[in-house]
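User: Sequence for Four helix bundle protein below. C-alpha cells please.
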Amino acid sequence: MRFQDLLAYKKSFELAMDIFSISINFPAEEKYSLTDQIRRSSRSVSANIAEATRKRKYEKHFVSKLTDSDAENAETQVWLEYSHACNYIDTIKFENLTSKSLEVGKLLNYMMNNPDKFL
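Assistant: C-alpha cells for Four helix bundle protein:
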C-alpha cells in the first residue's frame, strides 16, 4: 500500500496546498505566527498519514499516528477560524476549506475505526 494512494492522504495534501496558496496573501506581520502555524498543521496531516502507513505492522502504532493526523487537522480548523476572523479569508473560502478539513477528518476516523482494512 502506497500512502499516496489513500484518499485521506490525497484530500489532506490538496487541502494543505490550498492553504499554502491562500496564506501567501496573509500580511507580512503574520509570517512567523498565523501563516507559519496554519501551513505547519495542514502539512502535518498528510505527513502523519504517511508515517502511519509505515507503522501499519502494529495496529496501535498505526492508529496512534492517525490520531496525531486528526489532531493536526483540528488545529488547522482553528487557524482557519482565526484567518477568517482576522479577515484574511472571506466566508466562502473559509467554508470551503473547513468543509475539506471536515471531510479529511471523516476519512481519518474511518481509518482509525477500521484499521484492519489498512494493515
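Residues 59-85 form the longest helix (27 residues).
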